From TrEMBL:
Cross-referenced PROSITE patterns: DEAH_ATP_HELICASE (PS00690), HELICASE_ATP_BIND_1 (PS51192)
Gene Ontology terms: cellular component: nucleus
Keywords, comma-separated and alphabetical: ATP-binding, Helicase, Hydrolase, Nucleotide-binding, Nucleus
Gene: Ercc6l2_0
Helicase ATP-binding domain ranges (all copies): 56-245
Protein name: ER6L2 protein
CDD domains tied to this protein: DEXHc_ERCC6L2 (cd18005)
SMART domains: DEXDc
């Protein structure tokens, strides 16, 4: 036993200041011994357990799926809960011991009467945009003891070698790296590929779509809050990547679903087209229901914590105050501020409706109002935003 930490200190995740929405018990996913450890489950809400169960069910049956919850509902945490279950994580000291090098594990087995769990080897690939790649790494490190490799940058060759040697459980990479090194990725037997922002796989002719379909992995799990962006053909492309053939060929989908629905949504649609479109949408929803799970904030509002807004007021620096005042003293701002005053020509009309409708450059008061609001906002954020390289010459 550690002389510095007790077992409770080593639990992951650990948020001492957060109220626990659930009891500290494990959540059973199947009769095969797969469960979400209590260390994670105590922080989950019911809909998040349902999401983890949904992903797990498809993985267990070697099928793909799409988790399409609204942004902000914790798709990342639901995936991490699933990974913790299938990788048999406990979120405790036991995970630390299991992650040790093999020679240390063998030594510990000889010196200790305690049983050290043997974990079957599985490796999962997570593909995400670069902007959120390291957020995934941070979340995995926060929520458990996962052996993670980031396949990006100069060390990706070494990390690929580690993965092939079975020294990694979760690999993180970007769409671009996967496209450039597809052959190397295909030399690894992935247990499943998890794709963040899967709506990027929306064009069947795009390189990114062809790359994702060429990756050798039967279980494809997509995460997206916006599966339908511009048209229904994009929805077909994403679903056909996750579950090939589910919605038929592209031509079949167009004839049976997208055309009837889109025709029924036109403002000139006949009653027959409206009815046909509704029937097609109901049929499509039925086909997708077992493979696509989406919850909106409105749907699960009873499970969400109350929104808490924190407003912090920051005073302008002396330099910002000087710049702000200089802007207020310009002729254009004076024109805007005095727009409602009686005109100097004694006509009885307001300045903005008489002799002062535009400035010296022919710009209207309405356009100046929005332009200078933007300028003042930039000054309040940082005066450097007004540099010539970042804004118009007039500003």
């Amino acid at each position: 036993k550690s002389l510095i930490f007790d077992d409770g200190d080593l639990e992951k995740p650990y948020f001492p200041d957060r109220n626990l929405p659930s009891p500290a018990v494990a959540f059973k996913l199947s009769d095969n011994g797969d469960f979400i450890p209590y260390t994670i489950n105590r922080y989950l809400r019911d809909y998040q357990r349902e999401g983890a169960q949904f992903v797990y069910g498809h993985y267990a049956n070697k099928r793909g799926c799409i988790l399409g919850d609204d942004m902000g509902l914790g798709k990342t945490i639901q995936v991490i809960s699933f990974l913790a279950a299938v990788l048999h994580k406990k979120g405790t000291r036991e995970d630390i011991e299991n992650n040790m090098p093999e020679f240390l594990l063998r030594t510990m087995k000889k010196e200790s009467s305690n049983t050290i769990t043997a974990v079957c080897f599985q490796t999962f690939l997570i593909v995400a945009p670069l902007s959120v790649l390291y957020n995934w790494k941070d979340e995995l490190d926060t929520w458990g003891y996962f052996k993670v490799s980031v396949l990006h940058g100069s060390k990706k060759d070494d990390d690929l070698s580690r993965i092939k040697q079975g020294k990694c459980e979760v690999a993180l990479t970007t769409y671009e790296v996967l496209r450039l090194y597809l052959d190397e990725f295909n030399s690894v037997e992935w247990s499943a590929v998890i794709v963040d922002e899967a709506h990027r796989i929306k064009n069947p002719k795009a390189q990114i779509t062809q790359t994702m379909k060429s990756l050798k992995c039967n279980v494809r799990i997509g995460l997206t809050g916006t599966i339908l962006q511009n048209n229904m053909k994009e929805l077909w492309c994403v679903m056909d990547w996750a579950v090939p053939g589910l919605l038929g060929s592209r031509q079949h989908f167009k004839k049976k679903f997208s055309d009837p629905v889109e025709h029924g949504q036109r403002h000139t649609a006949t009653k027959r087209e409206l009815a046909t479109g509704r029937k097609a949408m109901v049929k499509l929803a039925g086909k997708m229901s077992g493979w696509f799970l989406r919850r909106t904030k409105a749907l699960i509002s009873d499970q969400l914590p109350k929104k808490e807004d924190r407003m912090v007021y920051c005073s302008l620096t002396e330099f910002q105050k000087a710049v702000y005042q200089a802007v207020l003293e310009t002729e254009d701002v004076s024109l805007v501020l005095r727009a409602g005053e009686p005109c100097n020509c004694k006509s009885g009309r307001k300045r903005k409706n008489c002799c002062y409708k535009v400035n010296a450059h022919g710009e209207t008061i309405k356009s100046l109002r929005f332009s200078y609001l933007t300028i003042l906002q930039k000054v309040a954020n940082h005066a450097a935003l007004l540099q010539m390289d970042n804004t118009s010459k007039q500003q």
